[in-house]
Amino acid sequence: MNRKISLIFQFLIIFFSLQASAQIENVIVETYYVSDNNDATDTIGGILEPGSTTYRVYIDLVPGCRLKKIYGDATHTLRFSSTAPFWNNLDRGQTFGNDFSKSWLDEGTVALDSYLAIGQTTKNGASTYFGILKTQDTDGSFIGGVNNDGGWSGIPDGLIANQDSAAGIPVTLADGMDTLADLPTNWIDDGIVDGITGDDSTIFGSLKVDSEFVSNNASLQNSGVMGIMPGSNQILIAQLTTKGEISFELNVVIEEPTIPNPTEVIYVAKLAPGESETSTFKLSPYLTYPAQCGCSDAHYLEYSNAFACNDQSACKTLIVYGCMDTMACNYDPAANFNIAALCCYPGYCGDRNLAVICPSLNNERLRIAGSKLYPDPAQREITLEIPEGENAQIEFDMHNYLGEMVVQKNFGSVSGSVSQKMDLDGLPSGLYILHLKVGSSSDIIKFIKN
Predict the structure, then answer these.
(1) SS3 per-residue string spanning 268-289
(2) Please, what CATH class does the domain formed by 358-449 belong to?
(3) Considering only CA atoms, which of 92, 339, 122 is closest in space to residue 330?
(4) What's the pLDDT at 388?
């Protein structure tokens, strides 16, 4: 195979593996808790309206990767929004999860505060806790019910004890908190808390009630965090309490475990005008919520890696690779994705067999009357029919659009007609050329495999 054709194959391999190359597998929004009338009695923390929902947002990474930074910059927006205001606890609420003392979380509604995180949910101490999905939390709970002080009104059975089925497992059984030995260091935040006063007037603080945080100059970062469950590697990035429907877009820095040294890769929710992806700068459709669905099947022209979920109805046109230059002798009218290096011209065919690729240039071809190949286009199977002959040697070989042989068969000496079915399941879509020989006669038949 010549170098140019080899490069084509490399391109196709890269094209079809785009989705597999990303280290962000998903972003999970968990319904953590739904508040009730008892929770609304805690006026110390500020009235939490019944029916408010606490969501937890987790980024799901390939095992071995670390989340190091959440950010917005001049060309990539960091945004958290709701159709109703976010709620923050007035008494012990914090902007960042790693600033909570574990002892505060049994007081009133503190454990439902809205905050930003990179995994960690309590300060360093005898035990430092990190967020984990309730469905994966097996160490019980220290949040809500008998573990709660009952708030300002001293509710006897404690607050945060509602068992609304919309929130799945009650937090009194699984609080979504567990310890992690590998603690992050070098915490740095920017653009959220006022650097001089220490005040936070964003949706993560209690100074101002608001339904949206939008910034092109904000970040939270540390030395890097992996999830509590290494095999799933899900890392808490935010807890948000609101009566509205949430949405967000965010950008992150991931440390990938490459050899010999780890590599930092930036993932963004949207590409700015003129930007393109590289090995260390990538678009991730999962960083926008709600997820946008469309054609995410790379075998179709409508494919885009900007979609987080596949809508098969949006995938309408199967890609057919081929030469789309009408001046080429192997111009393929069925092709819809041009690969110029496939094109053959008299005197130039990229070191391939011009007689096979462009049989119209072969003046010695003798048609075999009555030979048929159907259906065309074909999908899973195609049938070759050869008319009755007298002890003729029959053979054929089939080539793809690169001139490479993919099927070959020799029937030997045959008296009578031949009908041969061929399985096409393992062959990619595109143009194929069948070279048929019956005795001293030969024929070339083209067909399309969808």
Answers:
(1) ECCCCCCCCCECCEEECHHHEE
(2) mainly beta
(3) 339
(4) 66
